[in-house]
Here is the input.
Amino acid sequence: MRKIGISVLFCLLSITAGAQDEFVFTPQWTAQAQFAGYYVAEAKGFYREAGVKVRIEHPSATTPAMTRLRNNRCQATTLQLCQAMEIVDGGIPLVNILQTSMNNAMVIVSARGKDPLTQKGARVGIWSVGFGQLAICMSIKDHLNYQWVRFAQNVNLFVSGALDATLAMSYNEYYQLVQAGIEMTDKNVYRFCEHGYNVQEDGVYMTRDYYERHREQARKFAAASRKGWEWAVQHPDEALEIVMQRVNKDRIATNRVLQQLMLKEVLRLQVDRESGKREFRLRPDMVKLASRLMLDNMMLSREVTYEELIEH
Here is the structure.
């Protein structure tokens, strides 16, 4: 009886240890090529080779990624830099363990070929889950007084004519609009990266408390994820196949052409404009720019510094 008891206890301890060792990663949105590098790292065994047991779980409509992180239902998530700064300012210390975006992807697309900067008081679509901090800063700075209309995940409001303009990501909604027949020109598309708002976007974040207790695990996950992205650059067609497998598994309403365009644009945005390299690092100057813009427009209560966001 004693031997059986010890065996059962050993099994229970092993199961508990396995559950504790599992690293749950939640991207900030549903399955798409925006997260290709992580799917690749999982499919090609890079996480396993690094010694990290990773499970990728996407958020739901009722439980967004940051809520999952706060409630310890995942260990890391992707956030745009401006989002992360708002969260840190709100009292939740975060650590950036991997930066994938080196350039800003946000644009404003106006209807009927109009220049977004001439449409004062326009009804402009903005994501209900956030991401629009820089657009709000621009609207205030240029006295545009936009009326923000929140949308969930598609461009139907704009295409139907209910909006004068809409925010879009150059790797996502931009191509949805192209597929819907909207004409894109230099006149009706405002690219934030070309007007003093080139602030980095996607990075991988975890709470500082978790990071301090699991530094090695965090570094292994980051290194394997970077390897996934670098593999995707070298094998874009195979990476797309891996993305489509995930998209189909999750029953996401999209199409192969859109995901191929998204992957190409996401990979382009990973190349730093100045160095011409994939640096996978948070840039101090972009943190400072984002903090200043958001402070000037009362979106932060204090400066959030580069040192607060990086590993120590």
About this structure: The longest helix spans residues 2-21. Residues 157 and 163 are 6 Å apart (CA to CA). The radius of gyration is 21 Å. The beta strands are 22-26, 53-56, 76-80, 94-99, 106-110, 123-127, 147-151, 165-169, 189-191, 202-207.
